[in-house]
Amino acid sequence: MPPKPAKQVKKDSMPTENVATSDVSMEALTSLLESHKVSLSTEFKTVIAALESKIDLIHATISDHGQRITSLESNADLVDGRLSTLEATCAELAASNAKLRAKTADLEARSRRKNIRIIGLPASRLRVRDQPPSSPTYYPSFWGTKSCLLLLNWSGLTGR
To answer: pTM, whole model, 2 decimals?
Structure first.
């Protein structure tokens, strides 16, 4: 293997005129430092101005987001109130519906209990076909009494 070339060391990049002259005066150093101070100061001012503008933009964005969050919270409170009202109304309607269903079932059961069932005698045999329904002989003679006729009228078998 061939040997590696030696690394070259970079020398300070100081101007050669400052190194060559040994009589550097205090005034030259002061003016040099003053010029660096002014250039750094202007750089800092421009960077700080750019940062301040970005910070102002961030503050405006944060303020806008705060307003939006406040608006969303108030809308959420309104919707929550409306939802609570609707839930209460729904519960009331469900209770009312249950009561009405129970009442309907009770009324239907009572109606069924009041109906009379005549077992073994078909309704078609009660009518005499050759007589009109308004005549007193509409029903066969074995029903004979007026109470039976009223019972049939009440139960809906006569069609009146």
So the answer is: 0.42
- In angstroms, the CA 155 to CA 121 distance is 14
Q: What is the pLDDT of residues 119-156, one digit of tens each?
A: 666 665 555 444 445 554 444 544 455 555 555 555 55
Decide: 148 and 138 in contact? Cβ < 8 Å: no
Instruction: Look at residue 113 and tell me if it is in a domain.
Output: no
Q: Does one domain contain both 129 and 81?
A: no
The structure tokens listed for 97 are 């519906």
Is there a domain that residue 127 lies in?
Answer: yes
Domain assignment of residue 34, yes or no: yes
- Report the domain count for the chain: 2
Q: Which helix (H) or strand (E) holds 123?
A: none
Task: Tell me the C-alpha distance between 89 and 78, whole Å.
Answer: 17
* Residue 124 lies in domain: 118-160
**Per-residue exposure over 49-60, b if at least 16 CB sit within 10 Å of its own CB, e if not:** eeeeeeeeeeee
